[in-house]
Write a structure and sequence with these properties.
Strand content: over 45%
Radius of gyration: 26 Å
Number of strands: 12
CATH class: Mainly Beta
Shape: elongated
Oligomer: single chain
Number of domains: 1
Strand order of the largest sheet: 1-4-5-6-7-8-9-12
Amino acid sequence: MEMQLPFLRRRGGLAASVAIALLVATAPCRAQDAPLFGGFYGALGVGVVGLEDSHLDYSGAIANYRVEYDAGWAVSGALGFRLRRHWRLEVEISHRENDVFDVDPGVDADGTVTSTTYMVNSYYDFPVYSLSGFVPYIGAGLGRAQFTHDIDLNGGRLSDASSHALAYQVIGGLEFPVISRKMSATLEYRYLATTRPLFQDMGGFFYHTDYDSHSIVLGLRWAF
């Protein structure tokens, strides 16, 4: 037993040395795990929007229409604040616009559908920056959407109306540092949907419709 003690002491000293070396080596990585921004930040984004086909549902008063849309565009602006190390909260205003591609039944379809949303979003930033060089994050939001329908059909105006509805969205993105703790570029996917808003067409008939959109958004984020 006495002959083993020096050996055990050497093993213990070696283990302690390795542990200290690992702590020192991983300290910078753990520092990089910290959020890119602390406190307040601003964000701007621009992107492409795909709007799913919708139905103008007249609830049996007259025949329903099916509307298809071209790819559209989106812009957004937000102000946020980091609540905890990996959690953020922000308020956001965004605008989306899609041109009408086709209305069935009917001919000579044209027009635009727009939405402006006012959202409160919450995000979680995954602490993997030291491994990947970027920060993945997920988010969800709740708020209100305002719509306009300007739809032409059969040589005349079918609808020129506005409405509003409850809006919700889910978000997945990647944040890439440009200036450490000062500015980042972002790439996001967003799914935005709403409850069914109510509109009145040019003939005085009321209809409900759906709104489900998919967006790819490029953005910039900077700390205050």
